[in-house]
Design goal:
Blueprint (H helix, E strand, L loop, with lengths): L1 E5 L2 E4 L4 E8 L8 E6 L6 E6 L5 E3 L7 E6 L4 E6 L8 E7 L9 E2 L3 E6 L1
Parallel strand pairs: 2-11
Antiparallel strand pairs: 1-3, 3-8, 4-5, 4-9, 5-6, 7-8, 9-10, 9-11
Length: 117
């Protein structure tokens, strides 16, 4: 499974961005998809996750501002980010879990999100 993330960029505080992550390869067994982020000098943290049954979990810091969704027909997961804050600045990584093939998730390459104050 290969993941290609896109949609990052520079935005002012209060603005919005939409990240996309398209999976290719053997995708029909993808279970969970989600997003993590890593800010400079900080540990990577989970942002949002969506299961194959559309069960969703958000980090408390983004709840009410970010929305995760997935299009199974396109094997793509999205992260709509609204009301962005400077503390949302980070590299965002998408991932997918395919338990029948690996106990570890597959990761995308990361996309930079920078929010200016």
């Amino acid at each position: 499974v290969q993941l290609q993330a896109s949609g990052g960029g520079l935005v002012q505080a209060g603005g919005s961005l939409r990240l996309s992550c398209a999976a290719s390869g053997t995708t029909f067994r993808i279970n969970v998809m989600g997003w993590h982020r890593q800010a400079p000098g900080k540990q990577r943290e989970s942002v949002a996750v969506i299961s194959s049954g559309d069960a969703i979990t958000y980090a408390g810091s983004v709840k009410g501002r970010f929305t995760i969704s997935r299009d199974n027909a396109k094997n793509t997961v999205y992260l709509q980010m609204n009301s962005l804050k400077p503390e949302d600045t980070a590299v965002y990584f998408c991932y997918a879990r395919v338990p029948v093939y690996s106990a570890n998730p597959y990761w995308g390459q990361g996309t930079q999100v920078t929010v200016s104050s």
